[in-house]
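During the first year of the project, the team set up a workflow for recording each protein of interest as an amino acid sequence followed immediately by a discrete structure-token representation. This format lets reviewers and collaborators read both layers of information side by side without switching files. As required by the reporting guidelines, we include two representative entries from the current panel. The first entry is reproduced here exactly as it appears in our internal archive.
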Amino acid sequence: MVQVSTAAEDFPFYLDKEAFKQSVQRHLHTTYGTVESKANSLAWWKATCSAINELVFEGLTETHKKHSGIDTRAVHYLSLEFLMGRLTRNNLYNLGIFETARDALTELGQDIDTLCSEEPDMALGNGGLGRLAACFIDSLATLGYPAIGYGIHYEHGLFRQEFRDGHQIERPDSWRDYGNPWEICRPESIQKVPLYGYVETEFGPNGKMRKVWHPGEMIRGVPWDIPVVGFGGHTVNILRLWESRADDYFDWDVFNAGGYVDAQAEKARAEAISKVLYPNDETLAGKELRLTQQYFFCCCSLQDMLRRYKRRHDDFSHFAEQIVIQLNDTHPTIAIPELMRQLVDLEGLKWEEAWAISQQVFAYTNHTLLPEALEKWDVVLFEHVLPRHLEIIYEINHRFLDEVVAKKWPNDDQMKQRLSIIEEGNPRMVRMAYLGVVGCFKTNGVAYMHSELIKKELFPYFYELWPERFTNVTNGITPRRWLKACNPRLSALFDEAVGTHWPTDLTLLRQVVAKADDPKFQKRFMAIKHQNKQDLAKVILQLTGVEVSAEAIFDIQIKRLHEYKRQHLNMLHILTLYRRLLQDPDLDIQPRVFIFGAKAAPGYKLAKDIIFGINKIGERINADERIKGKIKVVFLPNYRVSLAEQMIPAGDLSEQISTAGKEASGTGNMKFALNGALTIGTMDGANVEIREEVGDENIFIFGLSADEVSSKLKAGYNSRDYYYNNPELKAILDWLDSDYFTPNQPGALASIKRSLLDGGDPFLCLADYESYICAQQAVDQAYRDKARWAKMAIINSASVGKFNSDRSIQDYVDTIWKLKSYPAIE
């Protein structure tokens, strides 16, 4: 792995306190036009960002000069999500000037935490996929690799979540209401995107056939660049996000004729493309918008790559040497036929030449085994929106089936049907994941177990065809944000224990394992955890009005709300404890606070019902004096990166309870472990590898294995068997039919019970219930032994160095991208 110096004297942008103060004051006066006595926290925050940007933009300029001067190979990371969170604190730490800025602002009468809280989260993602992308571009910059991230400049991001009588309510997340000091508009790099229309076949004078797409509509893609500061400040790469605008967005003649609304129609239609992350696709219009979104950012990004390549090259003979494109999940796979369109239709390359280039350029990361997430598009819709691309996909598929599949399995039409990019049926569908595998030189999963399941279950025949194309890159997290910045108390303890280089070499924390039995170190470690819990207790009180004790176990589950992640299994455990406490109020259990954070997709009714259920159950439990406060339940609204940064350092128990074989990797499990929480989890995703690192005795594993899950489902799983054979389970499920938690609304929670019984319990909650309850009892027993728990927590924190996103990126570089590191500022 590339070694990056992080010694204080080696940070290239050293700035003393007085210089930073003067810079902030200068920007307060000259950039924002106010004075110290009138400026509010928002103005102070923006002035602080402008002071930081003096260093950031200098680093960006130096990086651009270095990388363009050597015309280096670079990776282009295409992702529909980049869950960046807030950048102020992160940039200060990565530049090595956090303490300088904190002290300077204090002397100016400002609190750095207050100013940082003025920054809205960049809500450009939904969950793990987008947060992983953010960690990866951080690591690429930290390691000095030439890279650019490409995505969409969403106006509203996902949504801002509120609770009304326990129900999730979606509100616009307007993260740019007052501008974003970190982004720069680049109008000189605007691209035009064609949509709709028809394709014409033309023949030249020499009889050569040529396809011409006559689009029905043109959209402009306006790029906004967000600098990505690597730790140490040696390299500053960019994240380029595309905003959609109409090509001719205001019809003056129509306006003058009185058509005031019609004059703006094209503008509104075009801007809808970058309006919201993941519009509801239950309607045909929603599906069309999602497909348009994906094509829009891929088309802009590829035009941008070709524009920069053609500055220095007269032909495409070196294109695959200079450019590698990583497709982050299936969303950007439309980039494959789009590159073919640009090379064949616009640049005049022969099909064979263009396809040879394309297959050396693209690599595909698969993030899920769930069928609904492996995108398929109706051929009729595809032809309507992207008529030329459908033709290209047909040609790719035809050549693949006739030249590759037929050679491997001659005269086997069934195999052709299995592997075809076009799924026959009513309607016919384009399988985007298959397009990704066929069009890319590498396909990787994101944890060892997931990558093996890709080979065996998801793409077994593709693996048989091209075993050399499949590989694994286990996910990772950046320790800069997920320990150094979000947990400064623990970071300081680790600095003292192993030195200050661990943020770029997380394996150094292994030395701390030797201190796991030291009572003095245990006391300091757990005192930090307790302080973090006290901080979170204040946040909980502020957001929910619920008082919780930092003496209790903080049992946390934060991730997207989905049945396979099984928040409802966690809910069943809460109901079990509550019922036992009602039967015996003196039951000897460790006090516990169950803490949730999650958003449900607006169209996902059961997920929203589970949120409602947890909230209503929490209301009843929290107000029930009979149980003497032994358990409490809180669901924090509007889960996002900045809230996770407050929750993760405070966690005692990390809930990673997805159905085995369904979670690709997970990164929340890594963040919690790094911050000293113990994992309760199934043998799923990266839990398998975390167990290997921390040891069986320092993790709570329960439930069926992936093979056992598969066998049960194939044998005909009947969830009612568990319901009838376990009286306690039956009682708590029947509770959901009553109005106990929803007064005067009997059966308001019954949909959850129905999903587990009438719905067949597709993710085997009831099969794992008893094992889960036993594992939770083991947690209760372990927490009673304070020395044992402290030792386990320390070992977890010190043993997950493998899950550094720097290591993940180095794996990509070594096995897929083949890049060289060029730190811009030595």
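The second entry, processed by the same pipeline in the following quarter, appears below.
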Amino acid sequence: MRNYLVLILFVLVFKISYSQFNEKELSFTFENVSHLEALQKINSDTDYQIYYLQNWFTDSLIQKKYTNENIEYIVADLLKGTMVNYFLYPPNKIILTNNNNIYSNLPEGFFGKDSAEVQTVSASRKVAPIFYAKGDESVSKSMETIRVGRETGDKSKETYTLSGYITNFESGDPIPDMTISTNDNRLLAVTSFEGFYRIELPIGSNILKFRALGIERTEKEIIIFNDGTLDLEFNESIEQLDEVVVEGDIYKNIEETVSGTEEIDSEESKTIPLVLGERDVLKVATALPGISSAGEGATGFNVRGGKADQNLVLFDGATMYNPQHFFGIFSAINPFSIGQLEVYKGNIPAKFGGRLSSVFDIKTKDGDNSEFKGEASLGPVTGNLVLETPVVKGKSSFMFGARGAYANWILRSMKEESLSKSRATFYDGVANYTHQVNENNKIKATAYYSKDNFSISSDSLYIYDNRLVSLRWQHKFNDKHLSEVQIANSGYTFNIEYERGANNDFDLGYKINETEARINLDYLHSTDLKFNYGVEGKLYAVAPGTLEPLNEESSVEYNSLEKERALESAAYISANYSITKKFAVDLGLRYSTFMALGEQTQYEYEEGAPKNQGTVRDTIQYGNNEVIETYGGPEIRAGARYLLTPSLSLKAGYNRSIQYVHILTNNTTISPIDTWKLSDLNIEPQTGHQYSFGVFKNLDANAYEISLEGFYKTSDKVLDFKTGAQLLMNENVETEVLQGEGKSYGVEFLLRKNRGKLNGWLGYTYSRSFLKLDSEFEEERVNNGEFFPSNFDKPHDLSMVANYKFTKRFSLSANFVYQTGRPVTVPVGNFTFNDAEYAVYSDRNSYRIPDFYRLDLGFNIEGNHKLNKVGHSFWTISVYNVLGRNNPYSVFYVTENGNVEAYKSSIFSIPVPSITYNFKF
């Protein structure tokens, strides 16, 4: 009782002294002086004594003026914007502290919960001060202690946000996929591809563990008093480990709200045996459930039963119209230049638009800004090289990649005479410049170009090329608000040079160009609520066809179709909200508009009549930039996730999308000479709806991932062709195409093993894809207006990718694919006319070619892992199509000498061995 009375007396005396402390009125003027100089002036001009450490303050200058103010007001105002707090100790002492407060009262309950006396001397502050165990044995003496934020009197919040960037000390590069966890592993964060992290920590002392592949394991004591920023640098690990297991994203597949996403690392694809030993992340993507191609030698992808033109391929934010070389056998992107590939096939984020089925978001890696390095490979038909070098050490870098094919020697060495004059070459190059201006601003510029030349047993030379440039500026307003401004331009052209030594030699050309500007912003309202919003605009320019004589002897007359132009724009916003710890939603709204622009000629057709040359009612001339037609509407993106347990979740999603550009093709599969057509007066944009639901589970301490996801898609105004359509150089192309309904549905299963000597995945998809072309006019109706299988309808699709490590240096890889045969249209009868036999064909796609299956094997040899060596080598010995399966690419029928003959074509009908040498320095 006596002790409590003494305490009460002390508090009363303190309060009286405190009130007298501020009685003096002071005046000061500080002109361009530092905080230290201001504090020293108060010390020298008054009888107040201020205690502090000089290293708490920076050299920043202040301008302040005070007239007849008390000392507490002056000190509090001077310390605004710093991490320094103050404590007034009567009669004339001012004690400064870094980050934390000094308290004059003990918290409630300090002497016990039942102590009535304590209630009478409760502190004037309504919350307890922060205490942390300075002498905690769990904290290593060598562990760095970092204080973050400035403690305030308001402790209504129990947790605060710590964020920042983590980089490699030696190179300055961001460290992606680094795990940051508390000592008890209850709180976890993972750095992004740019090295950014954000974690919510309880107020006070926290022990954080930092783990990443190739980086020294580190622990730090973080004492957090308020929201704050902490940028860190870590050294590379030099110790040799028996095995390193990185589990940075172990729960990402469970916890992320957006469903139907896949991430592919370029480095992970090096052990997967592919044709001629060429590493290819896009080919790896087709081994995942829901993604397939029409077959060997087919360009493009089919995602969840969608057409190949319904996929948006982005390369550092710029559109790539043809991401493949040589009819899809090789990727058009140097694999050594890729940092990451993200595929969205389900709930597509609102910031992406313009396609119905999927987004392939490819990002190049930044060059090393600390030292010169490179990577190269040499295979039987291709060679790759990527170089990285610092420009301004520690701040900017340049990356350059080049690749070329030299397959002509193989074609010329074949016994088949018709192939001796064939040629097939391609090359591509990519470069990017990255500059970290300061901690809040980063600039990245990317340029890309590729070109293909091939002529296989024909008189025609096919030439096509891609090019693109993009410039991105990333700006951080503060810890919660980030922005990115991007300008990009991309183009695709193809030419067919027909030369037969006669007078009908010609050059047929096509070109599409796209220019885009985008502003994208991310706002972190809280740990539970995040926003993404922005605007974008695209300007299209299409030269749909140019025909000109190839030489002076040609009788072909010059002809050029009118150019097409259009403006597409959109605004979008999305929110990711964790309603509870178990239930989260991702809601997005995108509103897009499309204006077809002149100068152009459009045709109006008679109502109640099919579109053909004979039903043209009027010809309308539109002037330059005059609006021909406007389309638009809302696009809804919605997803939800519910955690049944920390390792088991349910996800559902819904998408509504609009697509304003179409591919014109009458081939069984799309090819490099297919043309893109803009929506106009007679061709409407496509719309699509997708519903999905899935179950996601991690097993055996996250060593296994298993998922089962179903989807149902509908689409309208899908473009297809009339039988016998002529699409190239047709100024009335709308008379040769049809727009109908599409639908697809399916179930996707994935089992992935992430750890151990044996790793890889097994994927299976059951899906169906149908198209309906109905009309009141017979010539615009296919299969009597009923649904029929699309060209890429393959109900069963099974893939297995596995890698077995015998030792650290030797591993065996396998890749197995099985697919149901693709639908085809076949002759079911014949008739004779003018002494010639002609075929009568079945309903469209009512038969199938034989099923497709292929097994590839590879043996991988790593170089030794000595630290002091010039470079690291990697050998891959592989056999593509080990079983020698003669998988048909297509089946077709022609009339020769009055008879109908059937032909089957295939790309690789024998085992194809290869050996590739990779070297990294």
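For the second entry, the following points were noted during internal review. The longest strand covers residues 529-549. The chain has a mean pLDDT of 82. Both points are flagged for discussion at the upcoming steering committee meeting.
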